[in-house]
Amino acid sequence: MSYESAACVSAAFRSIGVDARPSPDSDAQTMELARQYLSGDECLPEAVTLGNFLKVTLLPDYDPDKTAFMLPTSNGPCRYGHYLPLAKKVFHQIRGENVLFASPTSSDGYGGIGDEANSLLRTGWRAAIVADVIRKKLLLTRPYETEAGATDRVYHDSLRRICSVLEQRGVSHQERMRNIITAMTEIRDAFRAVPVEISAKLVIGVVGEIYCRHNNFSNDNLFRRIEKYGGVVWVSDIAEWVMYTNDEDVWRLKRYGKTFSMQMFGSKLKQAVMRYDEKAIVRLFEDDFSGFEEPHHVRDILELSRPYLPREGSRGEMVMSMGKALWYYEKGAAGVIDISPFSCMNGIITEAVYPRVSREHDNFPIRVFYFDGQQSDVDSHLEIFMELARNYRRRQSGS
């Protein structure tokens, strides 16, 4: 979904001998290729995903007999569950190619990956964490840099450094973690060495549909636009979603009377290991993320959402977006932007509730930005939002 996550998770696959690569960067050609097979009812992430897979078929070394596309899926009403059938239809029926799709699902916490699932999931989880940390350090450093492009260079060097650790084969989990800690310490120090000039900035929390908010092409490079208007982006991370899917597994087991079962023991154990790995890596950046701390547990977010969208009746990104928006409010952000694909169910539902949330929280600015892959006047709408955030900050500070 994001460049850094795709790079790091690909490295995790290489650690078990799979020649994994991120799909090509999204651009106008992505949409041109996808639109040949779309009806117009598909959401933007579905179009971008399909278009990027079709771009792979144009690469000189593309061989359908030696290529597999990883496309996770999900159940429920979200159109995300439709991505896989559409992609299979395009490749198998329209293109007539025998292409393999690897499709882990959120219904089992993405556990049904294969024979090397334990090794891949542990390394893949660590890959998700380090990608989130590197992205966060990028977004908290770049707005203050005094040399244009310096932070981006450190960012790309950091990804190459950590991917070289993640992709190592025949390494125990203990040794890999030691190597990750060493690499992430070096990465932290490299970001700290970027020349910066601290000035007053507006912290803008970003929530919304997970693909659109992390894919720079899909959200029309909104992060850089926020920075242009004097903002600092604090975006909900991808590891947070993985923790949510695992906690949903625990919640379902309780619901079906399996509180004391081997399935529950397995889910709890996995959750404990995930939290252990996350803390081991994130604690290196404790000083760097002071004031930008994430919730201790995903249930902290769910509890914040409960008065508006309780998890018992609302599921997925809408619940996480609502709770995280309130987390940003409590942490002193100047406003929240919800990034969603046009006509996305999650965005529509949260947009209906946000006005009440704003009224009950000091008229805290919250705005949904919809994207459909077409040119739009994002800057004018963003400029208005940033002025609202600036006025909110003035009211809060009494100046």
Shape: globular
Q: Biggest sheet, strands in spatial order?
A: 4-3-5-6
* CATH topology title of the domain at 200-237 and 294-399: Rossmann fold
Sheet/helix structural class:
alpha/beta
Succession of helices and strands: HHHEHEHHHEHHEHHHHEHEH
Overall pLDDT confidence = 91
Number of helices: 15
Percent helix range: 40-55%
Layout of helices and strands:
Layout: H1 3-14, H2 28-35, H3 44-56, E1 68-70, H4 80-94, E2 100-102, H5 117-141, H6 150-166, H7 173-192, E3 202-208, H8 210-214, H9 222-228, E4 231-235, H10 238-255, H11 262-282, H12 298-305, H13 317-330, E5 335-341, H14 345-359, E6 366-371, H15 378-397
Parallel strand pairs: 1-2, 3-4, 3-5, 5-6
Description:
- With 399 residues, the protein is α/β, with parallel strands linked by helices.
- The protein has 15 helices and six strands.
- The chain has a four-stranded parallel β-sheet with strand order 4-3-5-6, sandwiched between helices. The protein has a two-stranded parallel ribbon with strand order 1-2.
- Helix 2 crosses helix 3 (44-56).
- The longest helix has 25 residues, at 117-141.
- It is globular and about 65 Å long.
Structure described in brief:
This protein has 399 residues and is α/β, with parallel strands linked by helices. Helix content is 55%, strand content 8%. Among the domains are: 17-108, no CATH class; 200-237 and 294-399, Rossmann fold (3-Layer(aba) Sandwich).
Which descriptors apply to this entry?
globular, two-stranded parallel ribbon, 55% helix, alpha/beta, Rossmann fold, single chain, 8% strand, 399 residues, 4-stranded parallel sheet, 15 helices
